[in-house]
Amino acid sequence: MKMRSCAGRVNRVIAVLLALICVMLVLIAIPRLNDYRRRAQKLACDQAMASARDGLIIEYLRTWDAGSAQTAMVTLDEVMPGRDDLCPSGGVVYLARKDNGIFEPVCGLHDSDLKRRVRLNASHALDMLGEALQSRKQAGDAVMLSINGSTLTCVRVGGEEKNLRHGTNATTGYEGTVCFFGVSGEGDFIDSSVEAGQVCYFVYADENYCAIWRADDGWTGDAYQ
Questions:
Q1: For the whole model, what pTM was predicted?
Q2: Residue 76 CA to chain centroid, in angstroms?
Q3: The pLDDT of residue 212 is above 60
Q4: Exposure string (b/e) for 107-146, b if CB count within 10 Å is 16 or more?
């Protein structure tokens, strides 16, 4: 009886140890699996952007007309239907003009030009903020923006975020991607270039760079340096 009881306790201990080992292996594997998934998604996005670029170049060679960004966007929709789904991670597809005048599609989530990525995302977020505020009579304390497959909270502030001049990795008190806006006539914001109640200040920053917009000064920040 004692031998069987002892053997039973040993078996339970072994089972618990095996379970703990399995849990540890899973915890170790999850970050690697997530990393592999992110790499696979970026590779798929890069391939989709390359195909879209080839389509725009072929169209340019056919017509010899680089056209406007709007024309290029229409062309992109024709050569690559379902443009919004080109990035498997939900990245926004923008069009950026190259030095030769031809537009190229870039992803707001995977573009290798980190400063350009912030500039494009910041401009897009400001446009969405303006549309969201126009759809209601008063601006709330925060506006939810859908960008690059995620929801970004744009927080209303009464004064400039003076410490936010660089990416959030280099700025204490901020994490990930953040954005803030101020309204003329409220708090410290007095801007005669826009009507009272209109957005006069906007700042967008991801982990790497920051873009700042003021109604009377345009875009600044280290993403523009």
A1: 0.79
A2: 21
A3: yes
A4: bbbbbeeebbbbbbbbbbbbebbeeebeeeeebeeebebe
